[in-house]
């Protein structure tokens, strides 16, 4: 826009325009007697002056409203604040334009535009010492700035403003024996004098007076290359809705709700946000938005009055590490030299903690979560974005109880802590260490390390399982040796009795049952040894009818008259046959039916049935008992695990069943409760390979 000025100046001087330089735009057209050019210059000047007046009045009206009107008078909360502000600003715009016109009439067009511009420029220069000191000299304070400004403006008023208003040609200065003339050659004297007086008084007053706490904070915030570090303190309001409720008192409910929602949208936060870090950001954002609407002074008063910090936290104030981290990321490309190297080191250390294969949780003194690394996210299923900046007490169960309980303990290490999570058991090692918080010396925070030992614990359990199996093997060998001889003697006596009383049918039947049971005892001992030494037992592989082995197992269980009276129903299809060892499969069914009977109420019914597919057959045992808790279903097949009273169970029955089914290349599953509506009963399904008749070779 200024490129045309030299050309217009040259044209006016070349044409020897009689008017002053400020009127050369019109004078060139008049000198050339070119009416269109003169009209165009007039319209352009009118547009430029109108635009300047509009910009100046809008800026001055906003400044006057924010710094003069609102600090003295605030609109009532019952009315519409937006309408009040709009009409007040319109009134100020009219008043400023009227004041400008009155000043013009006061000068009576006796001064040219050059003198007016120089006078205004020198007045503006009086603010330069304060602006530069705010950026580069943190010792400067408000008293020094005001004192220097008053002295500088006084010199300016006496040296420039009054001579211009009085239309004086010169002012005699007796002390200097000098005549000061207000023209284009002497204005710099007044400028130098006023500015020098301003700087001298500003410096002396600032040096000999102490700045306030607010001034120190503002100086740090406005210093060059300084990142503003807001304090991390706890607010009385604990949610965005609480913000709206508090701001409704000075702003009204509708406007308060609108301002809170606007701040949340600016920060991309949900309305149900309750994290302390996010609430501090929301408070700062609301203050910034209100500053643009009502001025910084009024906005600060409203926020400090209605959104205060807790007074109990005055003794614990530290810097907001979350804000510093985010600002460093924003300033990353601007950092150079040592600052860039330190930032790279910071990023390296943070990346190390983030990728550490152990959960890391850093807490402040007031238990606000400062760090939550990726291993912690995977272990807990809680994202860092959700918990960072929130209090530890807001964590979901069971992590809240686990971490809070560990913090309250005096021990720094907690080994093999058992934790139930989503129906699964996890084993954890926990460690903690006290560290000083960053930027808050003397305030002790905590670092928690959480190590997942679940896989290691499972391996240890398998090792214990193997050791138990070895113990069972040694036990089985001793049992076989101690029982074998008496069982052989009993079998021989039963055979002799049957031969001697060959004519007695009842004695012969009883003798045969005794011989069969001695054989069964022998098979049980062999099964026990086979379980302990899996693979060493050479089982038979033949066609086995499930209906037959179910009938035999039920017959064996019916011999025990001291157990609970229940009804066994054999519903197996006689055509369903599997491949395996009939005696070992009878052992499987005896154990399953025995457990079902122990869990059933008196008079209950136990059903044994079969279902077949093309390649397999399912042997299903269902009872009407109380069911099996889900927490122990996974341990039912462990050796020596039992839910029965001491002396009533060894914990080997289902372990033997599991071993025999695996030897038959089958699988076993448990459904409990079998009846979801009544929450009762257990269904055990044993799946075995189906026997298929092969046609004879031709």
Automatic annotation (TrEMBL):
It catalyses: ATP + protein L-histidine = ADP + protein N-phospho-L-histidine. One of its GO terms (molecular function) is ATP binding. The chain crosses the membrane at residues 42-66, 87-104, 116-137, 144-166, 186-208. PROSITE patterns: HIS_KIN (PS50109), PAS (PS50112). Residues 478-692 form the Histidine kinase domain. Keywords: ATP-binding, Kinase, Membrane, Nucleotide-binding, Phosphoprotein, Transferase, Transmembrane, Transmembrane helix, Two-component regulatory system. Its EC number is 2.7.13.3. Pfam families: HATPase_c (PF02518), HisKA (PF00512), PAS (PF00989). It is an enzyme of class 2 (transferase). Gene3D superfamilies: 1.10.287.130, Histidine kinase-like ATPase, C-terminal domain, PAS domain, Sodium/glucose cotransporter. InterPro entries: HATPase_C_sf, HATPase_dom, His_kinase_dom, HisK_dim/P_dom, HisK_dim/P_sf, Na/Glc_symporter_sf, PAS, PAS-like_dom_sf. One of its GO terms (biological process) is regulation of DNA-templated transcription. Residues 345-389 form the PAS domain. Residues 672-698 are annotated as: Disordered. PANTHER family: PEROXIDE STRESS-ACTIVATED HISTIDINE KINASE MAK3, SENSOR HISTIDINE KINASE. NCBIfam families: sensory_box. This is histidine kinase. It comes from Azotobacter beijerinckii.
């Amino acid at each position: 826009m200024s490129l045309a000025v030299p050309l217009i100046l040259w044209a006016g001087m070349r044409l020897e325009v009689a008017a002053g330089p400020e009127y050369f735009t019109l004078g060139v057209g008049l000198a050339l007697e070119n009416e269109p050019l003169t009209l165009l210059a007039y319209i352009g000047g009118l547009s430029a002056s109108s635009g300047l007046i509009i910009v100046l009045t809008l800026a001055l009206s906003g400044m006057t409203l924010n710094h003069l009107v609102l600090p003295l008078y605030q609109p009532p909360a019952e009315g519409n604040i937006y309408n009040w502000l709009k009409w007040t600003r319109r009134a100020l715009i009219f008043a400023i334009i009227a004041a400008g016109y009155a000043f013009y009439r006061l000068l009576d067009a006796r001064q040219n535009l050059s003198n007016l511009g120089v006078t205004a420029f020198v007045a503006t220069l009086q603010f330069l010492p304060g602006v530069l000191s705010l950026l580069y000299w943190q010792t400067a304070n408000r008293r020094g700035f005001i004192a220097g400004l008053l002295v500088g403006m006084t010199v300016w008023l006496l040296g420039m403003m009054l001579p211009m208003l009085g239309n004086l040609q010169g002012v005699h200065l007796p002390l200097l024996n000098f005549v000061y003339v207000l023209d284009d050659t002497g204005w710099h004297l007044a400028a130098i004098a006023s500015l020098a007086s301003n700087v001298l008084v500003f410096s002396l007053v600032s040096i000999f007076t102490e700045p306030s706490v607010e001034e120190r904070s503002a100086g740090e915030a406005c210093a060059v290359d300084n990142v503003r570090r807001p304090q991390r303190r706890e607010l009385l309001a604990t949610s965005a809705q609480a913000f709206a409720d508090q701001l409704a008192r000075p702003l009204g409910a509708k406007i308060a709700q609108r301002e809170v929602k606007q701040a949340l949208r600016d920060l991309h936060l949900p309305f149900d946000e309750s994290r302390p870090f996010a609430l501090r950001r929301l408070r700062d954002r609301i203050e910034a938005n209100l500053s643009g609407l009502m001025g910084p002074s009024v906005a600060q008063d409203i926020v400090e009055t209605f959104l205060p910090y807790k007074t109990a936290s005055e003794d614990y104030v530290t810097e907001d590490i979350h804000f510093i981290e985010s600002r460093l990321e924003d300033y990353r490309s601007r950092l150079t030299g040592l600052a860039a190297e330190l930032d790279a080191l910071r990023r390296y250390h943070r990346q190390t903690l983030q990728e550490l294969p152990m959960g890391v949780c850093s807490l402040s003194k007031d238990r606000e979560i400062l760090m939550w690394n990726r291993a912690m996210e995977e272990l807990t299923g809680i994202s860092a974005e959700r918990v960072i900046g929130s209090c530890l007490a807001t964590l979901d169960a069971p992590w809240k109880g686990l971490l809070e309980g560990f913090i309250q303990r005096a021990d720094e290490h907690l080994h093999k802590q058992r934790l139930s999570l989503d129906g699964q058991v996890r084993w954890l090692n926990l460690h903690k260490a006290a560290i000083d918080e960053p930027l808050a010396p003397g305030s002790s925070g905590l670092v928690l390390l959480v190590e997942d030992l679940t896989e290691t614990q499972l391996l240890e359990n398998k090792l214990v399982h193997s050791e138990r199996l070895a113990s069972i093997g040694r036990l089985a060998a001793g049992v076989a040796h101690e029982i074998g001889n008496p069982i052989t003697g009993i079998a021989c006596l039963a055979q002799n009795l049957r031969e001697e009383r060959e004519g007695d049918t009842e004695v012969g039947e009883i003798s045969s049952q005794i011989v069969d049971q001695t054989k069964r005892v022998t098979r049980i001992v062999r099964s026990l040894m086979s379980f302990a030494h899996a693979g060493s037992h050479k089982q038979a592989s033949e066609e086995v009818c499930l209906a037959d082995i179910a009938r035999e197992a039920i017959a064996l269980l019916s011999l025990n008259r001291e157990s609970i009276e229940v009804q066994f129903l054999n519903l197996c299809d006689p055509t369903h046959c599997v491949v395996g060892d009939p005696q070992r499969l009878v052992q499987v069914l005896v154990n399953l039916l025995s457990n079902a009977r122990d869990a059933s109420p008196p008079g209950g019914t136990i059903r044994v049935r079969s279902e077949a597919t093309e390649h397999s057959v399912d042997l299903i045992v269902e009872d009407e008992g109380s069911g099996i808790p889900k927490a122990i279903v996974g341990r039912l097949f462990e050796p020596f695990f039992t839910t029965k009273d001491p002396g009533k169970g060894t914990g080997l029955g289902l372990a033997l069943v599991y071993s025999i089914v695996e030897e038959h290349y089958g699988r076993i599953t448990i459904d409990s409760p079998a009846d979801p509506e009544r929450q009762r009963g257990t269904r055990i399904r044993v799946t075995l390979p189906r026997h298929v008749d092969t046609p004879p070779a031709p």
